[in-house]
Predict the structure.
Amino acid sequence: MQRRQFLAASLASSAVALARTTHAQSTAGHAREFYQVRRYMLESGPQSKLTETYLSDALIPAVSKLGMGPVGAFRLDFGPETPVYYVLIPGPDAAALAEVDLHLAEDAEFLKAADPFWSAPAAAPAFQRVEYSLLAAFQGWPKLTPPPGTATKAKRIFQLRTYESPSYKDHVVKVKMFHSGEFDIFAKAGMHMVFFGDTLIGSRMPNLTYMLSFADSAELDAKWDVFRNDPNWKKLSADPQFAFEPIVSNITNLLLSPLNASQI
């Protein structure tokens, strides 16, 4: 029994080390990137098809030409309201992401492909509203990492989680908590970490957002159970530097599925 426990612990530790080493190697020499997250609020009916076509035929190719990506495009499956599409655009700096729409407006090829969506009349709008937020990647996870099944379009789901904090101090403490062992606990539980972002501009500030990927909902539930029961998580969450008060006041937890055009 002791030998089996020792081997299990050793394998888990090796998996964590491999995940950290692989990510460190893949991001070596890269400064942390930035993310623009778009939330398209739609009405049921033709808006969904029109928006999906716009994303696949116009927006994603255009921002890819600008050197940004890989671009994630997702349908909200479980959340407070549907239909909603999310778009995740990684970029090299905040200014480039802030100016994306200015560049798109000067791209004739984009405008031609985007016209049904871009120029939709008020009587038949393409969407209800669009919200943008701008995030900076965590220093400890400076670059987006697509899940392994992306290239083959394998079945996968995504969990998008936003943590709001009651004060800016608590927000900084929560970010520090990720860098103090939480990344390793995620890796040990076998979760695929896509990105971690500190919100610079957005609603319900201060907050942070991160994304995980799983094969399906059963894997999601199983791996979160492993995470919650990990002794290292229990120790970390009880550490006085993080447990002096509730440093997270609200959690938004969304389940997404990738659209066909998603590069993540």
Q: What stands out?
A: Confidence is low (pLDDT under 50) at residues 1-28. The longest helix spans residues 2-27. The radius of gyration is 20 Å. The CA atoms of residues 96 and 172 lie 25 Å apart.
